[in-house]
């Protein structure tokens, strides 16, 4: 009997694939293609908007709205990554690299430019 995957397993890779495919689609037919077509300023505007909405949702009672807004923020940051030639899998790999390492130790190991808070 084979093991069944949970819905989350492989999800980042599947989403990465779709986000790459959207780069070549018609902007009038795809929201993501439209973001790519409008370029970095529009994508950054969406990331900033979703960041604000996430912060606002965090200040509310309950967490359902927060989860919804974090989903929007993650999605738009994935679009940003793909626009810049990177993927969600790259971020997962970076988080895996940091796993089990003290945040203080990890931050101290960064090149000087990245240490700014």
Written overview of the protein:
The protein is mainly alpha-helical. It has six helices and no strands. The longest helix is centred in the middle third of the chain and has 20 residues, at 64-83. The protein is globular and about 45 Å long. The mean pLDDT is 90.
Secondary structure: elements and pairs:
Layout: H1 11-22, H2 31-38, H3 40-58, H4 64-83, H5 88-98, H6 103-108
Helix pairs in contact: 3-4
Order of helices and strands: HHHHHH
> In DSSP terms, counting alpha (H) and pi (I) runs of 4 or more, how many helices?
6
Global shape: globular
What is the average per-residue confidence, as pLDDT, rounded to a whole number?
Answer: 90
Report how far apart the termini are. 50 Å
Q: Major β-sheet, in short?
A: none
The count of β-strands is 0
Low-confidence stretches: none
Percent of residues in beta strands: under 5%
Structure class: mainly alpha
How much helix is in the residues?
55-70%
The Cα radius of gyration reads 17 Å
Task: Give a brief description.
With 117 residues, the protein is mainly α. It has helices at residues 11-22, 31-38, 40-58, 64-83, 88-98, 103-108.
